[in-house]
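Appendix B. One record, verbatim.
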Amino acid sequence: MQFRFLQFLRWLNEQEQKWTINAVAHRIVHGGELFISSVLLNEEITNELKQLNSLAPLHQPHNVAAVEIIKKLTLRIII
């Protein structure tokens, strides 16, 4: 997944449109009873989402990993 995102960023930079990414939205499969609507992610919320991995073990770990990868690659973007 990290490779695909890097490919996208590379493609974006090659365009002559001067596009920039200002925000990234990502759907997390399970927020338990803690998160019942959209939230801005920070380190604390990401850690709380990791604690919910057992509620959706086939999806939750991958969704949280995607958030962490995007955050590492694009520190100036609001996640």
